[in-house]
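Annex B. Sample input.
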Amino acid sequence: MALTDENGYDLQELDDLREEINQDAKEKLGDNVATDDAHHLGQLLGGLSLGRKKVEDFGELVYNAWSILRGRNSDLDIIGSDFGVSRKPATPATTYLQIDANVGTVIPEGTQFGTADEVLFDVIEEAKVPEIATVKDDNGQDVPLTDDDGNEIGRIVVQAQADQNGISGNVGAGTITDQSGESIDGVIRVTNPEAASGGDEIESEINYRDRAFENRLARSDSTEDGLKTNVENVAGVLQCKVQVNNELTEDSFGNPAKTSHFYVIGGADQDIAEAIFHAIGAPGHTVGEVSKTVLNHSGQKRTVNFSRAKLQAVYVQVHIKTTDSFDSDNGIANLKDKVIEYDRTLSMGDSLLYSKLFEYLWQVDGISSIDLTVGTDKASLSLGNVAVDLYSLAYITADNIEVIIDD
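Annex B, continued. Sample output.
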């Protein structure tokens, strides 16, 4: 039998292989020879069939090894490495910390702050509180920032990353409030105005395959797709969106003429700046609130700018009624996984579609009815889509999903 046909590799099933080997034995030894498992010869033929099956399975792996869409395991890693796209390792979450402190207070690199659950974050770069800060009062007027005793203090924003890899570092906004280890004199309070993001386990085969294929379609060149792809290859980056202004005048988004504006979720600032610099064509004018210095191959300093997009936390409450086939041990976790599976198909600016959630939830066995509410305010959920702005990503974590089994 041919190894391939018009559909590609013709993988043989074990039963078919056994029958083929049995027929070969009868042709050589006679039609009356016993080939069933009750006889020694049949048992030997069964062992030969298992060995042949392993060869067939290996043959399929070899046949598919060259293909991004069909390659598996280390073969897929080899394909990706051939054109410079490696599987993303496990990464720590990153966020920005807002630190209120006395003017002149130095925040050393590696200073740790944490959550009440002891999820720790390390400051990436040393920073110094430069001057008295101002905030808006109830009337919208600028007034000096003060401590609890009324003393005027300063404020600085620094980037920090979790000290452990994985999704546990993707903590919510306002949760990093504790100094960990040796406290720093002069620090009054700390918080993270936005959720931490980018913490992940080692990239799954499915996600790596999709990204490698996207890289092949849009190589990391200076096209819009290439620029986006190059930044999304940075460890910890969830998504990137590029707004290019090719006109000689300011565009409708306020971007100056002939500039590129990158909006990025996740990843370390310096890594992102390096990726932009090495992908964008000269002169590569970039704009955005984050500014980093990179070195070209001649050692000359260049400035790269980009912006941080926003993760919009979305809350989901699911009421279900179940049947006898519902998995009492894993069913709730499976439902949460399905919600997250749909959410991860969204791109920046996409609305989270209420009806689409049902499509994913119904994929879990043992459910007779589903009632669902969603929203960006946990205390005010509703029936309907969740819309976000162009540079925000609707993002759901397992902690933001509540599943209730009704009687």
